[in-house]
Structures are given as C-alpha cells and as structure tokens.
C-alpha cells in the first residue's frame, strides 16, 4: 500500500488550532493515512519546539500508510511518534502500555476514509465491485456478507433501520433474503436500488448509501466503540487537554453531543435542594459550542467534508 493517493484530511486548520495546546502527548485514535497527525505535529513544533504523538488505528494497512506519510517527522529528533494497532475503545490499555498517564489532546475522525472506499477489495463501496467485507480490521470479526446472508429478515431490517435510518428497511431486507447468497458489493447495491420505490430513487444520493452505512457500522461496532471511547478519553485528558471529534452522520453526532453535554454538566440535584448533595462537578467545557462545519470551498474540493460536524471540549482542572 502506497501514499500515491493520500486521504484528504477534513477541517485541517480547525483541528490543528484546537490541538496546538497544552504541551504533552497528543493521541490520534483514528490515525488513518496520517494527514491530521502530520499537521498537528508541524503545529506543535512551531508552538513548543517539540511534538509527541501516539497514532492508533485498527487497520494495519492504515498504520503502514501513516508511517510512509510521516517519514520526515519520524526522522526529526524533536519529534516522537508511536504507533499502535488497536481499536479506539482500547485507548486506556494502549496508554498504559505506552506509559502515558495524561494526554494533552485527542482526535477522533470517524467514519470510512477514501483509502477504504478506493480499494474495491475492502468491500466498502458500491461504486466498484468487490467482496462484501467492510471490516476496518480485515483480520478480525464477521464480514458484511455474513450479516447479509445469515440474519433473518426481521434482524436484517432492524439493523438497516437502526444504523442506516432507512425508511424502506423491511423492503430492502426482504429483497436481500430473496436474492441470497449475496457476495458482491455491486450486486448488493443493485438489490437495494430495486427494492426502493422508483420515485424515491430519483431524489437524493445513491439509494444504497444508507444500507451500506448500516452494514459498515454493524460490522465494525462503530457506535458502541464511540460510546466507550469518549468517556475514557475525557478521563485521560490533562488539565486544559482538548478532545476533538469529527463525525459524519447524525447517529455519531448525537452520541458525541450527549457525551460532551454530560461531561460538561455540574450539579444534578433537584432545584428544591438547598445545597448540593450529589457532589458532581463539570469535567469539561465546550470549546466549540455549535458544531463546526466545512465551508463551501472545502466541500467543493473534498466531497467527504460535506457532512462533517466538529465538536470539541477542554478538560477542566483534574481533581487530585
């Protein structure tokens, strides 16, 4: 795997601005091709004269690509870069293994990247034919084909409705079951397209988008991983440390919004209580109150930026 067509990082300036302070280790738990990581390292060299980055990814191919992209930074004596092959929700274990207690910042860039979509053999895209795989880590877990061909119609419909927010989920599930076995991405896209009413197919994007999203989320346990990672990341932030999340659909963004709001809330005692009995204090403050979105120029240049929502919080003083 080469860096000939690197993934284009989204909202790059905003991410580097947010993660330039404080001094310390910055973690990218969705390292990918290393685009954000390279920019964060460059900015922190400007600000601090040094940079310490831990890059985590569940995809071994992504780690290889990131190493290639970061070769100049790796040769700089002012820079320390470590890599870990792990899921985002394994953050506490990885930090402990690396001897890192508190971190200055953390980035999560969610969803599927162009390096997955552009490789037909990974099975993420309906635009080029490939096996129905969709695993971020191809060495582990069931594939999309396993779900498509093994789930009963009700289970498959529930999966597509929940993770794809697809209103024709039952029609799609019934059509898939009737066409089994389904092993290729293009064939699945055709089945989904034909199951959706013609009038609906003529509006919006590709009719298979929501079904493919649902299968990818289910295969990789993306939402459960996100729900586990956010509180763990907040726990490990140093004073003034910043957590930045880029999400690309409403299911992800709702989880991030809820987790940040919970961590930013203080006393939850009923208003009638004269004094606080819960002892709860806010752990973070919002850095980005309303989700930041890409501007028109970036959306035109990079279609992946069209749906991005950036949220960020800063850690308040860590209790002794």
Number of strands: 7
Run of helices and strands: HEHEHHEHEHHHHHHHHEHEHE
- Put simply, the count of helices is 15
Q: Could you say which structural class the secondary elements and strand pairing correspond to?
A: alpha/beta
The separation of the N and C termini measures 46 Å
Number of domains: 2
Kindly provide the radius of gyration, computed on alpha-carbon positions and rounded to a whole number of angstroms: 21 Å
Instruction: Report the average pLDDT across residues.
Output: 92
CATH architecture of the largest domain: 3-Layer(aba) Sandwich
Q: CATH fold name of the largest domain, please? A: Rossmann fold
Task: Kindly state the percentage of residues in helix.
Answer: 40-55%
CATH superfamily of the largest domain: Vaccinia Virus protein VP39
The CATH class of the largest domain, by name, is Alpha Beta
**Uncertain runs:** 1-5
Shape: globular
Q: What about the largest sheet?
A: 7 strands, mixed
DSSP strand content: 5-15%
Instruction: Enumerate the strands of the largest sheet in spatial order, edge to edge or round the barrel.
Output: 3-2-1-4-5-7-6
């Amino acid at each position: 795997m080469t860096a000939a067509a690197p993934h284009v990082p989204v909202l790059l300036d905003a991410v580097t601005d947010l993660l330039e302070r404080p001094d310390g280790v910055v973690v990218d738990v969705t390292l990918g091709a290393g685009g954000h990581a390279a920019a964060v390292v460059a900015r922190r060299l400007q600000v601090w004269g040094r940079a310490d980055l831990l890059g985590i990814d569940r995809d071994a191919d992504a780690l290889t690509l990131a190493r290639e992209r970061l070769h100049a930074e790796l040769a700089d004596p002012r820079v320390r870069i470590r890599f870990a092959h792990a899921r985002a929700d394994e953050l506490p274990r990885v930090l402990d293994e690396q001897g890192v207690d508190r971190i200055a910042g953390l980035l999560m860039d969610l969803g599927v990247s162009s390096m997955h979509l552009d490789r037909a053999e990974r099975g993420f895209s309906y635009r080029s034919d490939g096996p129905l795989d969709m695993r971020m880590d191809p060495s582990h877990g069931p594939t999309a084909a396993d779900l498509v061909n093994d789930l009963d119609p009700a289970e498959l419909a529930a999966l597509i409705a929940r993770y794809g927010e697809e209103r024709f989920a039952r029609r799609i599930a019934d059509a898939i079951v009737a066409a089994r076995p389904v092993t290729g991405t293009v064939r699945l896209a055709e089945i989904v397209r034909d199951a959706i009413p013609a009038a609906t197919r003529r509006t919006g994007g590709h009719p298979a988008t929501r079904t493919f999203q649902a299968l990818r989320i289910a295969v990789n346990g993306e939402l459960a991983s996100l729900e586990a990672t956010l509180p763990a990341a907040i726990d490990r932030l140093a004073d003034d440390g910043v957590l930045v999340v880029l999400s690309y659909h409403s299911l992800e963004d709702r989880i991030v919004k809820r987790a940040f709001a919970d961590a930013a809330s203080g006393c939850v005692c009923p208003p009638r209580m004269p004094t606080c009995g819960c002892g709860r204090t806010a752990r973070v403050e919002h850095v980005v109150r309303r989700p930041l979105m890409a501007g028109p120029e970036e959306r035109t240049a990079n279609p992946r930026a069209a749906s991005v929502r950036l949220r960020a919080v800063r850690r308040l003083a860590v209790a002794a």
